[in-house]
Each structure stands twice: as structure tokens, then as C-alpha cells.
């Protein structure tokens, strides 16, 4: 079923017999993409409910908050660009596998959800979110496999969808930057009170 979805092999049983152990690209583009996204979507209602119940006065806009929002905004734009590339490619004679539509669409919705969660955290006493930090870690770990596969393919001279590879590398770099920013704590407004 997933092989038709990707138009390629989902799982190769002789994977470990190869000198270059790479997971099939279909597996990397489905399971390893959907695990972090599923984690976020399954736990987002709980996170938003927690934010709703602990509403306090909205905190001021910090540079850290703006940086995270801008980077996620770039991820949103890159997902829209990828979807536009797929639509342009599909208007030709080539058949585009369904996964090429599904992932950018899922990412568009996910980046919107991340923007909402980050914005809603401004009303919480605790501004930082372990939940989003865990999502970024999971996303980067799962993306590592596709990252190394695409690099290996490019080094072997295969220009497998060079535009999509570049978009992936840019998105991966932005995710790493957001994870680094997530390691810093938001300033508490109460610390600005002078005695």
C-alpha cells in the first residue's frame, strides 16, 4: 500500500546486507516524517488545554519569541513552496506520487499549529515548552536518516530532485536553529520588577 503511495520500495529486507546501509526513501518520507508530526498532533490538544487553563496576563514580546516565530514562518513558506513545486511538476506529463502532496500539506498544517502553540505559551506562567523541544528533537533525529540519504545520493552524482533536496536541507537547518533557540529560557516578566 505505501509502495503505491510513494511510487518506490517501502522496505527492503536485504537492507543490512548492503555495504551502505540506507533506509528506503519511502520509509524515510513516510514513517520517519509522520512519527514527529503524529507526536505533535496527538499531544497538541493537551498542550493547548493546559495553556487555556493557566491563562495569565500576556507577556511581552521577546527577541527569542520573535526569532522562533520567524523561523517557523520560514518553515511554513518553504512547505508552501514545496507544494507549489509539486503542483507545477504534476501539471506536466510525469506522475507525481501521493507522498509528494501529503508531506508538504502536513507540514503546512503542522507549522501553523506550532505558531499557535508558541504564541499561546505567552499566556502561561512557564513560557518554555518541553513539549515543543521534544518535538524538535524527535523531528531532527528522524530527519537525520533522510539527510544522510540525500547527501549520499548527491555525492554519488544522482541529482534526485535537486530542488526538493535543497528545500529539505534548508528546512532541516531551520529546525536545528529552532531547537537551539528552544534551549534558551524565556525571561520571566516578574524579573523586570525593580525594588
From TrEMBL:
A family per Pfam: TMD0_ABC
Cell location: Membrane
Domain called ABC transporter TMD0: residue spans: 15-153
Membrane topology: Multi-pass membrane protein
Keywords of this entry: Membrane, Transmembrane, Transmembrane helix
A Gene Ontology term for the protein's cellular component: membrane
Bilayer-crossing regions: 31-49, 70-87, 99-117, 129-150, 162-184
Claim: Transmembrane helix is one of the keywords in the record: yes
Name the record gives this protein: ATP binding cassette subfamily C member 2
Originating species: Rhinolophus ferrumequinum
